[in-house]
Amino acid sequence: MVLFINKNTLASSLEAVQLEAGSGSVASYIPALQQADPAAFGCVVHYGREKVKAGDTDIYFTLQSISKVISLALALMDKGSEEVFSKVGMEPSGNPFHSIQTLEKEKPAKPLNPMINAGALVVADMLQEKEPDAAARRFVRLIREITSNPEIDICFETAASERNHSNLNRALCYFLKSHGVIENDVEQVLNTYINLCSVRVNSCDLARIGSVLGRDGQDPETGEQLIPAWTAEMVTTFMVTCGMYDASGSFAVKAGIPCKSGVSGALLGSLPDGTGIGVYSPPLDSHGNSAAGTRLLEKLSSDYQLSIFSGRFR
C-alpha cells in the first residue's frame, strides 16, 4: 500500500481549508500559548517509511492534552487496565475538558475518562515514583522512542507559565485528593501533569506517533514493538470516543478518524492501516480544538474515505 495523498494535493487541501476555516482564537489562559503564530498551519501524513508534508511542519509546539494519550499508555503498561479503570472511567463526558461538574455528581468521585483534565490528573498520580521527576523522564523517553526523535524534551518556559495559571487543575487535584482518588502529593502530581503537557514536538513527531498507534504499537520502519498491541488499541479507542472533548461525537460522525487534540492547536490522528497524521494550527474553536485542523481532517476524510467506519477499513 502507498500513501493516499501526495505533497501537492495535501498543500491544496490546506489552502482550501485556510480559505473556509473561519474564526478561531489562540488559547489565552496559558500566557506562553498566546505567543503562537495564528497564521501557522501545517500537516504531515506518515505511512511506513513515507512521509508527506505541507505547510508549517517544522514549528515546535507543546503537546498539551495530546500528552494524555501517552500518559494513559504508560499507566496501562505499568498498572494494567483493571487497576487504571478502577479510578478513572471509560465514558465520554459531554462537558468541557476542565469541568468539575461531573466529579461532584459521581459517587464516589471518579473522572469519566482519561482524556479530560480530571482523568489525566488521576493517571499522572498513578505514574508517580519515589523521585518527583521520574514520571516525566519516563514519559519523555517513551516519546523519543516512538517518534525516533532524541531531541524532544520538556519546554520549561511553558511549564512555568502553565504552573502559574493552573488554579482550576489544582482545584480538581485537591477535590480528587479529598475523595481519596489521588493518593500522592497534589503539587507533585500537578507538576507531573504540567510537565507532560509541556513536552515540545512538531507535526512530523505527531504523525509518527499516530503511525505507531495505528500499527498496534509497532515502529513503522523497524517493526519493533514500542507499545503493547492491546495498549495501542485501547488508547486509540479513547481517541475516538473522547479525544476531541465535547465535540468527539460530531467529529466521529464527520471525520471518523481516531484523534486527540491539544489547546496548543495540535491534532494527532491515527488510522488502522498504520497511517499517522499530525496537524498544527493554533486558533481554537469553542470546544478547544484546532478550528482549521479539525476542518482539514474532515476534508481529508471526505476526499479519501479515511473514516474507520467506512468500507475502506472493513
Automatic annotation (TrEMBL):
SUPFAM superfamilies: beta-lactamase/transpeptidase-like. GO terms for molecular function: glutaminase activity. The keyword Lipoprotein does not apply. It catalyses: L-glutamine + H2O = L-glutamate + NH4(+). It comes from the Bacteria. The keyword Secreted does not apply. Keywords: Acetylation, Hydrolase. InterPro entries: Beta-lactam/transpept-like, Glutaminase. One of its GO terms (biological process) is L-glutamine catabolic process. Substrate binds at S65, N117, E162, N169, Y193, Y245, V263. It is an enzyme of class 3 (hydrolase). Its EC number is 3.5.1.2. Belongs to the glutaminase family. HAMAP family: Glutaminase. Homotetramer. This is Glutaminase.
